[in-house]
Sequence to fold (346 residues):
Amino acid sequence: MKSKKALIPIFSIVGTLLVGWLWMQSTLTGHALNKEWLENQLPEKLDEDRVLPFGYTLGLWPAYFEEEPIVTKLTYQKGPPHQFLEKIIQVWRPVEVELEISGPHTIEEGMSASAWRTCFENSFECRSDKKKFLAAIYPDENLHANDSAELTWFDSLDLLAARGTHLKIQSQTYRIDRYTVITEKGATQTFSLKTVKGPIGEKARELFVKTLSGLKVKEDLQSSREWIQNKIKSVRLDEIKNIANPKLRLVRLIQIQNWIYSLLSVDPTQIEPFFHLAGVTHLLAMELLKSKTIYFPNQEAWILNLKPLFETLLAYSKDFPNSEAPVKNIETLLQDVLYEQNKLSH
Fold:
């Protein structure tokens, strides 16, 4: 039988772990959330080419960060055509600044934005709902491993503006600002900005908060679908090929890519956008691979993402019924890109 002295270290370790767990639960779910207010900073004249829907939000999205186009990447996770894309990732600056757009999701049926706000305004009410919400918006990482974690409620005086929770996590090298917008019907859309610490990260957060403050929340997707579909219908690829300035051609192709990602966020039920995204990406790839000029410092990162993007589009396309022809066409475009890349490597 163990002595009482031998048991003391065990009780000490268990006690320390229990205190840590209770501290985290109390900090993130066990008190009324502080509130932060967002002030709409939209300009009087809007550039309609930059007004895009992502899920249940519609707003003016930046096309550039630090004078370079913002590009988007996609990883395969089973969803379409029956469910929304799990996430879309905007690369504002490779390695240093990325924005992950997740959802839409419904965390708890019957919980509206008002119900969630009431829940988070109370110290010890609906603890299980708070834990479920936190697990849904931050499922990938262990909060214990982070240097700090803070949860607040963000709001606006504009009734149509975005509101919800802001989870802020910091480590020694980076910071995550995860804003979860909640519609009145209870759907959530999460925007998670991960930035390195330093001036670049500060600039990115300032631009993102400005973007977030101007978002309008929609309660249905139909108007957003019509908005982005009309944009894409206006695209004439022959006109893009005729743009004389190669740098402007790259910018225009990246813009159209981002429009298609926007469409996929509100309507993942059709295979055509995946195929169109492959087609536009092929044009972009040919511009990048055949040009001997470096127009943007991050062009090499864009080239490295070409093959993974085509492979992701192939995986999504194969989940659609009767998709043999589109899949074959995407495979052909991929082989064309790989051929050009192979020529460069030799």
